[in-house]
């Protein structure tokens, strides 16, 4: 017969055994909840992420997770709580976790998070899966759609700050317009690294990207921003600043090349830069067309055009050419004779016709007749007077009354 003391001890032992059994049952149930559910035997069943037929393997517990669920070993309570919250209480977080994992690998491989909308993680049999280090658990994950959804959720204000921080740490670009800007900026950097400047011609490309057109649009946006700033300075109203280049983006381009948006034509600035590089290399200033060609530009021809067109340059351009390149304007002897206008040509032919009339007494000039005259500069000139007279007669309807009167005075017959 048990004594009262022995009975109390046995009761405490049974209570302890019940509590221990309860903890074991609870642990077993937690393990069952955390473990993946049985694979569906119905073909075509899709997972939460929209992937078909690969949910069982992609959601399989990792080695650290299996170690964490061994309740017979010590574990970090905070880590265990976070795991249960992710896998048991809030299983929808699993799609986010896989997206972050895929985004991290993509950023590591491509250097950015500019994921095409149709992009999916390479499958297990894709060679890229092994070369780029994609785990089998992410095979087929729709990373492009996941990234687009993240932008949409953030725009609606439905994304937690911690998730925003995770994506921004990976270089997330929230706006589609910002994505397009970053793509163009990356192409501009690549083109500048190869060519030494950012004065690309309109048809320039970088790895298939039309960087020349992109820069042209950026310059137009920069000039619009400058016009808006001038209007504000003058106190004039500004209807809209849409399409104007921001100070931040202008600074990004100036860090690549400070002269990317000159006040004069880009072609002029590009040739100036190439001539300067030519001189910095210890070469002589090219002065003849065809002498030096760089990046498709004839530097000698450009130098000639600068010297001959000196008066058409701005003060800043003249200073750059003279002080930086050592170019001087052409002398009067070097300048070509001005081109004759149509009025000048008519006047010289009329002088020849008048000379013929004064010598012959009429203006019945043979068709192939050549009349020679000597100008004030003592230069002898030849005029196809016969053809010119016939042309004036056939164009009588378009001649001014003054010219018709002049020709009639020297014996011109109109019929």
From TrEMBL:
Pfam families: HA
Residue ranges occupied by any Helicase-associated domain in the UniProt entry: 93-172, 178-257, 343-412
Residues covered by region (Disordered): 38-60
Domain of life: Bacteria
PANTHER family on file: HELICASE-ASSOCIATED (PTHR33418), HELICASE-ASSOCIATED DOMAIN-CONTAINING PROTEIN (PTHR33418:SF1)
Designated name of the protein: Helicase associated domain-containing protein
Species of origin: Streptomyces galilaeus
